[in-house]
Design brief:
mainly alpha, two-stranded antiparallel ribbon, 2 strands
């Protein structure tokens, strides 16, 4: 299993510290915006080929765990 801390990083020198997928300049927020807008994960991955499917899924799984933990 890949953990979010391995795929999402914050670096003040990259997009002002916005959380991005490791090794890219693609903000995690972009993935959420795509999904919120009704687009599929495949469409996101086509637009941002530097993000792997495994990284996107790991980040979403971590976000899900955080939401569940906060509501319990």
């Amino acid at each position: 299993m890949t953990y979010s801390s391995e795929v999402i990083v914050k670096d003040p020198d990259i997009l002002g510290g916005m959380p991005v997928f490791r090794g890219t300049r693609v903000p995690f927020k972009n993935l959420l915006d795509y999904l919120e807008g009704g687009h599929t994960l495949d469409e996101f991955l086509e637009q941002f080929p530097s993000v792997t499917r495994a990284a996107a899924i790991a980040a979403l799984e971590h976000a899900k765990e955080l939401v569940i933990a906060r509501t319990q």
